[in-house]
Amino acid sequence: MSAKNIILITLDGFRKDKIGLCPSLKSIKENSYYFSEMNTNVPYTFAAHHLIFSGMYPSRNGVDGYYKMFNFKKDEITTLAQLLKENNYYTVSETLDESVLPRQGFDEYNLFDEKTVNLKKRHVELIKRLSKKEKFFAFLHFTDTHLHYVREIVQKYEKSENDDEYYKLKKENNDKYEACTPLADDYIAEIKNALDENGLSENTLLIIISDHGTGLGEKHGEKFYGVFVYENTINIFCIMHIPGKSPRIITKQCSTIDLYSTIAELAEAKIGKKSEIQGESLLHLIENPSAENRVVFVETGGLYGPWPSPEKHNIFCVKMDGKKLIYNDTPQSWEFYDLKNDPNEENNIYEENSKVIANLKKQLLKHLKENNIKTKLINFR
Ligand SMILES: [Zn+2]
After folding, report:
1. 16: closest CA among 181, 153, 167?
2. Which class for 238: exposed (0-12), middle (13-18), buried (19 or more C-beta within 10 A)?
3. b/e map of 180-203 (b: 16 or more CB within 10 Å)?
4. How far apart, in whole angstroms, are the C-alpha atoms of residue 86 and residue 268?
């Protein structure tokens, strides 16, 4: 790799369909590898990050429920930060709370108060400081868009009796959300500047993702994210800027479980033989246009919503070739969508006798079994 340093930025809750509103972000996207069909395997903040940093699905890494935020199996897992540290990277994490990602492997694990912090200023200073290091990895959590949107909404809808109103106000919600997007774009512009000013642009790999999307009222029962597994919250994006590489849009389906192996490969860091890393490096998708789509599995268990389940995940889906099968464990119901013809998932066309559905069901059951995920389905086998 021509880059030696690595910066991974999470734009928390940033929707893929809003990149076009952000000139700086759009410009980086257009000059990078852009994974347009990246998915998060678990659409809420801390489970999403534990998955990325462990390269393991939630049931394997321990963080498989909202109340399991501190159950990370740290003694059994070499985190991405640890792997990079072992490969002579100076490692820094910038986030708002210890629950977001595991501390292990970071030389610096810095917390900020999202209510008072100026992230632009803070991270520009950090980049300046890191430019003196031999080689560094920095995880930067950008929380402003998320904070401002949630604050607007939480204040308005904190009483559950006016919940329904939220779903009627899709346009207003969308306008409010869009009003927050310049925060992210200004931040990205500053980071880009800081890389230029500190002579890091030519030797730093910059990866920008979101950890999940944000519902704007599209799906009744989900005010923000984490409740369901519909596209507006799981279909995220990944911008990978590798200096010297020509831009390309990668439309193959993939998911965040693959980021560990991808970043390891880019860093030329060998993953130990005994490691149980579950993803696969995505570099072959870039180099080989005829590569297959990766099968994507997503799971969640919301804190609120129609079937709250903070102790264990209760909603699962499998995505393959533009088709998506969802299993809701609490009511034991199935949904099936043809994403090409119905991208907003409005027509559930599940039927018992479909071969396509049977095949997806088989894949999903295999995934649940391999990962020891307990659902009511197990009883049916
Ligand atoms: Zn988040």
Report:
1. 181
2. buried
3. bbbbbbebbbbbbebbeebebbee
4. 12
Q: What local confidence, expressed as pLDDT, does residue 158 receive?
A: 67
Distance CA 243, CA 1 (A): 9
pTM of the model: 0.96
Q: Taking 80 as the threshold, does the pLDDT of residue 380 lie above it? A: no
Model confidence over 216-234: pLDDT tens digits? 999 999 989 999 999 999 9
Report the candidate in 40, 68, 62 with the shortest Cα–Cα distance to residue 257. Answer: 40
Report how far ligand 1's centroid is from the alpha carbon of 6 (Å): 21
Task: Count CB neighbours of 58 within 10 A.
Answer: 25
What is the C-alpha radius of gyration for the chain, rounded to an integer number of angstroms? 20
| CA distance to 25, 184, 197, 199, 250, per residue, from 190 (Å) | 11, 10, 10, 14, 26
The answer to whether residue 248 scores a pLDDT higher than 90 is yes
Task: State percent of the chain over pLDDT 90.
Answer: 87
Which amino acid is residue 312, in one-letter code? K
Q: How far out from the chain centre does Cα 253 lie?
A: 14
Alpha carbon of 212 to ligand 1 centroid (Å): 6
Q: What separation in Å is there between the alpha carbon of 234 and the centre of ligand 1?
A: 11
Between CA 88 and CA 136 the distance in angstroms is: 8
Alpha carbon distance 230, 334 (integer Å):
13
Q: How far apart are CA 254 and CA 321, in angstroms?
A: 11
> How far away, in angstroms, is 117 Cα from ligand 1 center?
17
Query: What one-character DSSP code corresponds to residue 205?
Result: E
Closest CA to 112 of 72, 141, 132, 137: 141
Residue 132 Cα to ligand 1 middle (Å): 31
> To which residue do tokens 């109103």 refer?
165
Distance of CA 49 from the midpoint of ligand 1 (Å): 9
- pLDDT for position 381: 44
323-328 and 248-250 strand pairing: unpaired
Average pLDDT, whole number, for the chain? 94
Query: How many A from CA of 1 to the centre of ligand 1?
Result: 30
Per-position DSSP letters for 104-131, written without gaps between them: TT-SEEEE--TTT--HHHHHHHHHHHHT
